Amino acid sequence: MITYHTRQFIKLFASLIQDIYHRGKRWQLIIPITVVTLGLLIPQQMTIPVRGATPEDWNENSYWAYPWGKSITHKGIDIFADRGTPVLSASYGLVVWSGYQNVGGNAVIVMGPKWRFHYYAHLDSLDAFTLQPVAMGSVLGTVGNTGNAAGKPYHLHYTISTPLPHFWRWDDAIQGWQKMFYLRPDDYLR
Ligand SMILES: [Zn+2]
């Protein structure tokens, strides 16, 4: 899901740039560049996305845990909580997707400041709709174990991804280059 949205975002941006370029009005490139820059400048405030949770509710090695099934590495953190605990939006933003898919189960994707995508998965119930604006702390649903978490302890899977590569995040871990696109939630939540 995440990579799909990241890809769509990059495609949309690239076609916009190409379009402007081909129309020969290159000065107009300032428009998308300004919009992206402004988005990057929006300050980001964040909260732990499960009501009442503390950093003790996830393992600090949760991010990039390996081996991790088909995903190879775990691109986010798993915050454990009782079933039905409210899942909160970690940042303010716009819900860009809310629904069910096989892997994530009931899941929500919020686009927040700095063009980052916040992915919330395995929810029990969903309380967010596509294009809904959300504040930091808005309820998106409740903690569950839907999708490929079925039968496992209830938890929220949370991923932050960015379509703008953070080159300085690349390291020599397994799939380390993908760290340019999947940020470490602990850096923002601890
Ligand atoms: Zn997970």
Word description of this protein:
The chain has 190 residues and is an alpha+beta fold. It has 2 domains: 40 residues, no CATH class; 135 residues, Glucose Permease (Domain IIA). The chain has 3 helices and 9 strands, in the order ααβββββββββα. A hairpin with a 3-residue loop joins β4 and β5. The longest helix has 21 residues. The two termini are 26 Å apart. The relative contact order is 0.19. Bound molecules: zinc ion. The site of zinc ion (ZN) has 4 residues, from loops.
What is the topology?
Layout: H1 2-22, H2 30-41, E1 77-80, E2 86-88, E3 93-101, E4 105-112, E5 116-126, E6 133-134, E7 139-143, E8 155-161, E9 182-183, H3 186-189
Antiparallel strand pairs: 1-8, 2-7, 3-4, 3-6, 4-5, 5-7, 5-8, 8-9
Summarize the structure.
The chain is an alpha+beta fold.
List keywords for this structure.
3 helices; binds zinc ion; nine-stranded antiparallel sheet; 190 residues; 19% helix; 9 strands; alpha+beta; Glucose Permease (Domain IIA); globular
Radius of gyration: 17 Å
Helix content: 10-25%
Number of extended strands: 9
Per CATH, which architecture of the largest domain? Distorted Sandwich
> How many distinct folded domains?
2
Main sheet?
9 strands, antiparallel
Low-confidence stretches: none
Q: On the 0-100 scale, what is the average pLDDT?
A: 93
